[in-house]
Structures are given as C-alpha cells and as structure tokens.
TrEMBL record:
CDD domains: Ubl_ThiS. The gene is thiS. NCBIfam families: thiS (TIGR01683). This is Sulfur carrier protein ThiS. InterPro entries: Beta-grasp_dom_sf, Mopterin_synth/thiamin_S_b, Thi_S, ThiS/MoaD-like. It comes from the Bacteria. SUPFAM superfamilies: MoaD/ThiS (SSF54285).
Length: 66
C-alpha cells in the first residue's frame, strides 16, 4: 500500500497499522506525535489504527536539549 510520510512516498504491506509504520521507520521508543490526514492519532491507538492507501501522515519526534 502506498502512503505519504512527511511528504515522501512510503510503501507498507496492506493492513499495516501506525505501529507497523513506526517499526518500519525504526522510530520505536521515541516520543512521537503522529497526524494522519489532518487528525492526531492518539498514542494509545497506534497498534489498532490501520492505515489506508493514500493516507498522508506527518511524524514529529521530540528532541531533548537545553
């Protein structure tokens, strides 16, 4: 399935979840905010939130510093 992540094309298997995307991008364990088609995806639903062809996602991760 073709989706767009931060403006770039990404291909995932059909039926993939937001959590599958996070794993594919090697972003596990990071503090992330994810928006899908203009709506925030709650962290508690990453595993259940199934992606659809042509979804547009924006992923932002927090970077610590001082």
């Amino acid at each position: 399935m073709d989706i767009t992540v931060n403006g770039r094309p990404q291909v995932l298997p059909d039926g993939s979840s937001v959590l599958d995307l996070i794993r594919a991008l090697k972003l596990e364990g990071r503090r992330l905010a994810i928006e899908r088609n203009g709506e925030i995806v709650p962290r508690s639903t990453f595993a259940e939130s199934r992606l659809n062809p042509a979804d547009r996602l924006e992923i932002v991760h927090a970077i610590g510093g001082g």
